[in-house]
Amino acid sequence: MSAECTLVNWTRRRGSWIVAVLVCFVMLRGASCMGQATVPVKPDTGTGAEVTLDRVVAIVNGDLILESDVDDEQRFAAFQPFSAAKPMTREQLIDRLIDRTLIVQQMALQPEPPITDSDVDDELASLRKSIPKCAAYHCDTQVGWEKFVVDQGFTLKELRDRWRQRMTVLRFIEERFRMGIRISQVEIDDYYKATLVPAYQKENAPPPAEATVEDRIQEILLQQQVDKLLDDWLAALRAQGSVRILKPGEEAP
Q1: 8-41 pLDDT, tens per residue?
Q2: Closest Cα partner for 106 from 246, 252, 238, 244?
Q3: Structure pTM?
Q4: 112 in any annotated domain
Q5: pLDDT tens-digit series, residues 174-208
Q6: How far, in whole angstroms, is CA 227 from its chain's centroid?
Q7: Could you tell me the residue range of the domain that residue 26 belongs to?
Q8: Which CATH number is 99's domain given?
């Protein structure tokens, strides 16, 4: 069987993400290249190499979610250590990416001023103090922080871009749903004692002073409250739009 596979750039309305999507035109028997596969790559040196092709796992109103997006989301969890009690399954990660894509699509209808660099810097500075595993890397130093980021599979720029998008999404959600939600000091205190301190103890590291991470804890608790209000809205968006999850080996339309 012979096949011609052409690599093209597909620009999606998901923040500033531009992803490479493999479009395959199979010449015989109608076979498809959309499932995960390997093809030989011959660079100018003449050395052969095999690469794993990306695969479409979901289509949300025409926007693609790829297997690599799922992998990125799983690794990005290292920067949100208190968001979930246990690691998310692949199916849960896909659902989260679908929800985020729906939100980003709605955000495009109501453009807002971009998050400033200084706001991103402030958030990341706070984040470095609130990740228990960062203690072993000495994330209080730039060298230690950069090594931690790289070990999670990101560059500093990639992390900044993802965190900026996260902040943009949270701002949109908060403006739409947070009215009436109040996080009390008691809730912050309880979270610090019951969740954050034990997490640091597990890593044999001293926890930061509560005052230095209060804003971060408040954001986490606020997000948990807002998540409950999001469910019905996202369910409606799914029902009104077109959301399709592809099984492994299933061909994208």
Answers
A1: 233 333 333 333 332 232 222 233 333 333 323 3
A2: 238
A3: 0.64
A4: yes
A5: 888 877 788 999 999 999 999 999 989 988 889 99
A6: 16
A7: 3-54
A8: 1.10.4030
